[in-house]
């Protein structure tokens, strides 16, 4: 019967990881709903970007206060997870601090985990203050009304609970070690929790063991719950920031893609030898192409990956000239809407046994309005700001393309501009023959 | 006074069997907008002074398609692009200079895939190279010690990471270059990009050009320098909106250099 703990642990671990794996598959399936785009070029530059931007947090520190606090949480998250490995082994085999044989190195490891745990606590409390007491503009923005606001706070509360459990676990363990209780072999150094251990003085051994066990179980179960919470939250960036920075656009920010389907038609139009009545080659236009994006399936998979990666920090929106001057456009909302719609499309596929049944809704119109799209100046401030290289601008542009090329729904003044370009090669009504008149004026 | 600008066209060059050192892409704004035409002329005066053998397309030039593309009309963009590329390739253009960051970005980044591969430089880069090569010398002259702030055009700065060439030129004038709180990669748009120049702004509580002009005025400048005809228009309007046109001038970098030269 003494294996009951280990079996229970195995079951909980399997459920925790299994459920997460199912949801990861859903995310991948949804991302693959996007159009193809080749981002396999230049692997060395891509690895470098991932190392600098995701691993090295180089864009985070552009706003130093948030950047440094974020690094505490990030390093804490990555490093303390080494400890999770030990916790899993201990749980499966009933050992106590199985890596203790590492000796001094182990002490250094546990000691640094503790210091990081404290730094994470400090940072997370600062984040809560920034969101809820100082109320920084980008955190009380209308984009975040309701669930997104609670989501952000839940994540922070969760981290406080996890770090506190970690420190209580260590403190009770240290107390039991000091009391030479059986099973609790001396291991680790506890620069932080040594100050917590004295609270257990005066308690009896079995109560402290109970506290230690409770903290241990709650901590590991908490981690598994947190892991599974990711799928439902904006917090997926802790995983997706890595592929997202790898697959991000490498071209100059000013370069917008040239639609290939359009190139074909324009070339045909301009070719004097082309027969306008010729039957298109059989493989041509296998799928009737749509110009621009009306829904998430019209976007490419990198744009959909972007949507899942966005953690709604709002740096894009706070730097957007349109948003700053009171227009409806918010680049963050573009990303949030794209993800919400993608999840909706994914759920539709799930309930309809693997096929998407049109639901009469679209990303364009039902989530994102033309008014938002037309407010964009294409200035790239949002792209520049994003700490994980998301491009809200590319989505805005693809949707403008749909509005103009499929719906002819440009604002009147833009139609006039485009008519001028067509008629006289300039956005204003001037005769092309007058183009050099300035020389003699 | 009728000034004599030497502005050969590519057609004239070809007739003489010559290939210019650089093709000056004037752009629609530089050809037709009254304010921008002064920038065009200032740049030509400098080219003439430095004996740069250049040529323009003249009536064979057409809109690059930038505003159409940014408005979402990829068809119109590619039609314009292919017509321009046909002309440029027929003249075997190698190097192109332009005073418009939108033309610059489009020809440099979006034309190659459609068959138009050229070395494209912004006029601030070109002017800097003229100075570096000793083909042009400037002294501060009338701008010595003046406070000048530079507004980064989005399509020159963030879009193409060119931040230093215009600043170095301002410093060559012995002027005091003052930076706005938002500059270079963090620069704020003037409000004209993405085809906004050609439409009214969406409802909001402020115009973007006024917001940006406030950034510029905070530096207490005597001159706001720009490197884009559209930014120039937006900032000029912003200065008027703030009723500061008597104290603060909006000038293109080419105009600063030309004026310093008394050209």
Automatic annotation (TrEMBL), chain A:
Coiled-coil intervals, chain numbering: none
Gene Ontology molecular function, alphabetical: 4 iron, 4 sulfur cluster binding; metal ion binding; oxidoreductase activity
Keyword terms of this UniProt record: 4Fe-4S, Iron, Iron-sulfur, Membrane, Metal-binding, Oxidoreductase, Transmembrane, Transmembrane helix
A GO term from the CC aspect: plasma membrane
Alphabetized Gene3D superfamilies for the sequence: Alpha-helical ferredoxin (1.10.1060.10), Transmembrane di-heme cytochromes, Chain C (1.20.950.20)
Keyword Zinc-finger: no
Domain 4Fe-4S ferredoxin-type: 301-332, 366-396
SUPFAM superfamilies, sorted: alpha-helical ferredoxin (SSF46548), Respiratory nitrate reductase 1 gamma chain (SSF103501)
One Pfam match: Fer4_9
Name this protein carries in UniProt: 4Fe-4S dicluster domain-containing protein
From TrEMBL, chain B:
Protein name: Cysteine-rich domain-containing protein
GO cellular component, one term: plasma membrane
Matching Pfam families: CCG
Keyword 4Fe-4S belongs to the record: yes
Domain Cysteine-rich span(s) in chain numbering: 22-108, 148-235
GO MF term (any one): metal ion binding
Alphabetically ordered keywords of this record: 4Fe-4S, Iron, Iron-sulfur, Metal-binding, Oxidoreductase
Domain of life per record: Bacteria
